[in-house]
Amino acid sequence: MCGIVGYIGNKDVKSVVLNGLYNLEYRGYDSAGIAFIDRKEKIHVYKKVGKVSVLEKEVLKNISNVSFKLGIGHTRWATHGKVSEQNAHPHTSASGKIAIVHNGIIENYVELKEFLEEKGYKLVSETDTEVLAHLIEYFYTTEELNLLTSFTKALQQVKGTYAIALISEYEPNKIFVARKGSPLTIGLGKGEMFVGSDIYAFIKYTNLVIYLNDENIGIIDGLAYNIYDLEGNTIDIRPVVTDSDLMFSDLQGYRSYMEKEIFEQPLYLKNALEKSIIIDNDDIIFPYFNFFSQENIKKINRIIITACGSSWNAGLIGKYLIEKLAQIPTSVEYASEFRYSSPIIHQNDMIIAISQSGETADTLEALKIPKSNGAKILSITNIPNSSICRESDGIIYMNANQEIGVAATKTFTNTVLILVLLSLYLANGKKLLSTTKMKKMLNELSDIPNKVQQILDQKESIFVLANKYVTKANFLYLGRGINYPIALEGALKLKEISYIHAEGYAAGEMKHGPLALIDEFMPVIFVAPKDYLYEKSVSNINEVKSRHGKTIGIISESDKYLPTILDDYICIPQTFDEFNPILSVIPLQLFAYYVGTIRGLNVDKPRNLAKSVTVE
Ligand code: G6P
What we know:
The protein is an alpha/beta fold. It is built from 19 helices and 27 strands.
């Protein structure tokens, strides 16, 4: 949801800022812009609708030979104001001497705009951000405050969320930053400093990072940094060394990140099995579990999982797993709903927040309600030191390495694997699993990456299937029990990547509505491995067949019957019922990926979407 970059130092400022923008493009790609301060202390602003590559061309055409002291950049996911050059960031003040980039939403911008218009300011964009540039200059010029105080005073007027980087001809050797609700980090190099919405903006150059907290304002000049609160008091924040495993990865010969990330799932599932847990005496130990010792876990009466998007779908699988294996009542809540509900929280409730990015605004806010009621928060995330991590009492890392494709793939399967491990841990703590059963399950889990590989090896058949159905306008995805969330995830992948309408449904609910949609034009994808609900799924498939629907199955390789009645099918290897979702989702990811590519779409950056949703 918008990416912010900044650099001050002796490297070529243009290249560092543009490189940072490329690395953050997954956060938004409606437009991109930069502002630099040159050696004569003048601001230059360039903005373009579209991707960073369009902006880069413009920059190279105009200022390839100019040398700069510092610069900021922004890649936009539009919230206020349509996608246009005028609405692209950076936004400048009336004099053009202040340029700012912003991620977040200024909720009282109408009120602030009216105030500025009364004072004679003319706003040129439809954005909420522009008001801030004018407001800061208003305090700077009318109240003769220094830039830090003007910036602080303007932020005191703001309701909403922000991550901001600001440069100005008034103080041309500094970058000002601020954060509330939207993430912002500072990277410390030798005689140089970086700003990034996340560390991928600069991880190539430094892994020494300051994570700003809410209502922090900072100034960097390349040699020193100073952080203040909104009252102007100095705050002491120490940098942390971030895991260099998080190095930004390139395409390595794949045509897209989505393709690469689908195909590297065996590798990262193995990685999660090796890094997320320590197996000790057939028990599972999570290295960053902190509060959640077996002793404390025993007191837990109820679990609430909260998340958004694919993480929510994974959470729903978590409910089936935890209730079946550990017998702890579990509910799954959309974070965007949970944060505005009136949940009844008890001290012995455990909240699991699932978020790949660790920055999703709704999930971050949702966990604050139970936290203030004394419940403990466990987060499952892919990004160390993310905002959600910092609110949590314990963390399990997905260990999937960076995921760049907007649609979650490898982080989804790693999350489900983590939820399996967590359920086993909880079950073991409650003595619900015999040592033999535990051993058997861990043994089978270690073979899951190979089984995923066997499915990936069927890519040609899945491509053929995608070609056959690519022209269909609607799809229905059905599943039962633990595979119902996979029907939801399969449909979500197709919607996101190919813009085809797809609905995921609990197969047993089909007769209460969706059955009316079935005719010879409607393809129905059944997730129907040979598990405890197999016979029920077979009945649902027959119901669709008898209404002439096209039936496609994700079925077990041992299944001899379904191949005789389905129009098409893809086989997955046999495994325990609990592990089926990790396998059954793979053909659906590939199917969506191939349909999207056959339709000529940008599968890494689907229209209107963004990877990290840091606004509500
Ligand atoms: C966005 C992404 C999805 C993701 C969701 C939740 O919508 O496009 O792929 O599942 O956010 O993100 P999180 O980082 O919280 O898992």
